[in-house]
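Propose amino acids for all 377 sites.
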């Protein structure tokens, strides 16, 4: 296994995620029960789940699931899809297949830590930072300047975690074209796609824009079903998919059969689930707007363009790291401080924290947060 540093987010969550009274930094939308999901199934899929044989499954993924996934793309077939045990396995194996010693990658920051640390364990990496002073804008000229003759991958994540940024579709299309003309693989983390506040801002999927591009997605985030542990990569380069399959032989080999059937049910009901989840976020955002308006002297707040996380600025004197630790220890309210998202590649803000806006009934957590602040911290 490639030698990697501690995963800061998961280490922090190991300490607090299941012990804090108010998990206010969740990166997924409110989940549903197994019964609620099965209620969305057609007769055929329900029967498939109830009569499922618990044997090994295909390494590429259940053919029926891959067929459903391919239907989400304009230019992909089932043969252009490979499934994984969540998005993390997909990202890890993709970088190990795409990159080697002597190669170079470009990674946009801030981002999910492994999007940076896995490539860094393999080759040289250049970071390109979203600009917090320009609404987290991505400067395509900076991306172009970072590209070298040996660049093999440009890695992006929109809607972005943790900022919630969605760039313009024209810029995303230009990024794909820029990579294509240089023979670079655009690796696009699209796990929050479908949760844009303005559906008109939904980006095209990278796999539809380029045969070389890889679109990463998962049932965990926008659908709110992380317990299924089903992710996938869609890419029209089938030789690359074959290499990914061979790499998967060294990790999970195949996915859990029940999860694949349940993922198939969820993706067939995707429109219904996303409508529910967008409505939940839309109902929650005024609560967060009101909270941060009350404490405007302590925070700079901006709702996300998409996804279910935001990245406000903390203005207090003690700094965001101490603030977040005291908040969870004294009030039981869990947030993620900026140190979790620090980059080895670029300067990243040190005064931010991630807060989640996609869970049901956030009032209790916001109330505990407010009471602690009113008490003088």
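Proposal:
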């Amino acid at each position: 296994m490639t030698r990697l540093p501690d995963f800061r987010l998961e280490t922090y969550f190991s300490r607090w995620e299941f012990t804090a009274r108010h998990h206010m930094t969740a990166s997924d939308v409110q989940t549903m029960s197994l019964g609620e999901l099965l209620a969305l199934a057609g007769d055929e899929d329900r029967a498939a789940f109830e009569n499922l044989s618990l044997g090994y499954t295909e390494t590429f993924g259940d053919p029926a699931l891959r067929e459903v996934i391919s239907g989400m793309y304009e230019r992909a077939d089932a043969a252009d899809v490979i499934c994984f045990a969540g998005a993390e396995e997909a990202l890890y194996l993709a970088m190990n297949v795409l990159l080697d010693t002597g190669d170079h990658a470009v990674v946009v920051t801030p981002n999910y830590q492994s999007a940076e640390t896995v490539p860094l364990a393999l080759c040289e990496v250049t970071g390109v930072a979203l600009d917090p002073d320009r609404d987290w804008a991505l400067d395509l000229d900076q991306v172009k300047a970072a590209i070298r003759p040996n660049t093999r991958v440009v890695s992006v994540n929109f809607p972005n975690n943790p900022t919630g940024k969605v760039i313009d579709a024209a810029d995303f299309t230009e990024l794909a074209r820029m990579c294509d003309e240089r023979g670079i693989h655009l690796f696009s983390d699209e796990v929050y796609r479908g949760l844009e506040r303005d559906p008109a801002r939904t980006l095209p999927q990278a796999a539809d824009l380029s045969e070389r591009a890889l679109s990463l997605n998962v049932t965990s985030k926008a659908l709110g079903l992380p317990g299924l542990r089903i992710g996938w990569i869609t890419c029209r380069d089938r030789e690359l998919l074959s290499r990914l399959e061979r790499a998967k032989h060294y990790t999970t080999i195949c996915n859990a059969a029940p999860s694949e059937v349940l993922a198939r049910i969820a993706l067939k009901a995707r429109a219904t689930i996303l409508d529910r989840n967008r409505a939940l976020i839309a109902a929650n955002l005024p609560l967060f707007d009101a909270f941060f308006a009350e404490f405007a002297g302590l925070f700079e707040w901006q709702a996300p363009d998409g996804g279910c996380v935001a990245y406000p600025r903390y203005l207090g004197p003690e700094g965001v790291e101490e603030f977040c630790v005291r908040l969870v220890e004294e009030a039981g309210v869990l947030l993620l401080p900026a140190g979790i998202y620090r980059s080895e590649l670029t300067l990243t803000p040190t005064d931010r924290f991630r807060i989640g806006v996609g869970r049901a009934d956030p009032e209790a957590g916001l109330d505990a947060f407010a009471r602690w602040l009113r008490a003088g911290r």
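Residues 34-269 form a domain with the Aspartate Aminotransferase; domain 2 fold (CATH 3.40.640.10). DSSP finds 14 helices and 14 strands in the chain.
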